[in-house]
Amino acid sequence: MQNSQRTPGVVAGRLDQASYRRNFDDLHPPLDAHEAAVAADRCYFCHDAPCTAACPTEIDIPMFIRQIQSGDPDNAARTIFAQNILGGMCARVCPTETLCEEACVRQTAEGNPVEIGQLQRYATDHMMEQGIHPYTRGGATGRRVAVVGAGPAGLACAHRLAMHGHDVVIFDARQKPGGLNEFGIAAYKAPDSFAAAEVAWLLKIGGIEIRYNQVLGEGLLLEDLQAEFDAVFLGMGLAGVNALRTEGEEHAHVRDAVDFIAELRQAEDLSTIPVGRDVVVIGGGMTAVDAAIQSKLLGAEHVTMVYRRGSNQLSASTFEQELATAKGVKIVLNAQPVAFESEDGETVSSVTFAYTEDGPAGLKLSEETFTLKADQVFKAIGQSLKGVPGVLETTEGKIKVEGAGRTSLKGVWAGGDCATGGDDLTVTAVAQGRDAAEDIHAVLAGADAVAAE
């Protein structure tokens, strides 16, 4: 630890290099072969598999664990990838404690579930490290599909379409693929550039082209895609960031948490990332937790996460909340910012909050307030849809979809965070992209059959 940790203001290099490496090391070190075998032996291989029912991609969990138990991790990986082509990343970032592992019979009986996420990582890593891609592209159909967004939903959709022999062009707003997995996940959850490696592995199937710096609504028009391609899938996530609309929000060092996380994820040297001594994070979701923990890991002395509602409405999982407090993050509930103060008129120096009361009439601010010292503030209060044409029906700020992602426009599908049903989880986005691809294929195959008659 360097003396700069106690330096006020937002500065880089608060820690020594050894501390950065230690702090941002793999959150869950991988299992070795012996550990995987021991973990697999704990599975009851339930015939009704509540774990599978709890998985958004419906992976046959007892099957892949039995394959690991029998010493066949590559076939276990095939079982996983058959349902979730991004199973490697999901094994790292999926909130298994609220999905498959929460449903595990061992969890119900003993409070100690089978390590499903770790076993999934063991199998998928085993195959990917060998450079094996378990799928080949289907025979060319002559059909072309446009996919907007190279995140989990778009990549899953593109891969499944390529399996069926369709040509796919992915349009992405950034200069690098991966979406949430590459830019929005805490660095310690997916170190060693795993997200980029997984995309490169996925693209081995062939038939998928990615075009970068393509923003829907800014030169890239939906009507042009409809005219050029046989189908369109929208999986661009939520690019807009909600504003607090609070006095003083424009002060320096008040910034969006998603931008901070993306900057950190792309940094080659973590010591170049500036962080404050007294950091306040506003929000109660996974993004807020990731921003808070990583601020602490970068050397911030005091980090406080403030959420406007109670603990039962925090969207961050219990595991994530406990991880945050274990790292030294203080969580304050039932409080909302009412003003950002500045001692010099330019840079934030503190935030004043009012306690809230959540009653039948909704959230209400009380007259009782408190002030937190802050030289850096991160806003993590949600994102919004951006760049969607008015001809697409939306609801609750997202693209309205029915069935397997069908939108109000014929020939246009959507999935992931930008669509209704998306819930800011990689695994859900993968499921929606995969299912939309199967529906697109069925429609295109049906159209071909009609044309041939």
What this model shows, in words?
This protein has 17 helices and 19 strands. The chain is globular, with a radius of gyration of 23 Å. Strand 13 and strand 14 form a beta hairpin. The chain starts with 16 loop residues before the first helix and ends with a helix. With 453 residues, the protein is an alpha/beta fold. The model has no long low-confidence stretch (mean pLDDT 94). The protein has a five-stranded parallel beta sheet, sandwiched between helices. Strands 8-15-9-10-11 form a five-stranded parallel beta sheet. The chain has a three-stranded antiparallel beta sheet with strand order 12-13-14, with no helix packed on it. It has three domains: 33-129, Fumarate Reductase Iron-sulfur Protein, Chain B, domain 2 (Orthogonal Bundle); 144-239 and 388-452, 3-Layer(bba) Sandwich (FAD/NAD(P)-binding domain); 243-379, FAD/NAD(P)-binding domain.
Summarize the structure.
The chain has 453 residues and is α/β, with parallel strands linked by helices. The protein has 17 helices and 19 strands.
Structural class, from secondary structure content? alpha/beta
Report, as a whole number of angstroms, the end-to-end distance.
74 Å
CATH superfamily of the largest domain: FAD/NAD(P)-binding domain
**Share of β-strand residues:** 15-25%
Total number of helices: 17
CATH architecture label name of the largest domain:
3-Layer(bba) Sandwich
* Spans of at least 5 consecutive residues with low confidence: none
> Helix content range of the residues, please?
25-40%
Physical arrangement of strands within the biggest beta sheet: 3-2-1-6-19
Instruction: Using the coordinates shown, work out and report the CATH topology of the largest domain.
Output: FAD/NAD(P)-binding domain
Shape: globular
**Tell me about the biggest sheet?**
5 strands, parallel
Quickly count the domains.
Answer: 3
* Radius of gyration, in angstroms, nearest whole number: 23 Å
The CATH class of the largest domain, by name, is: Alpha Beta
Mean pLDDT: 94
Number of strands: 19
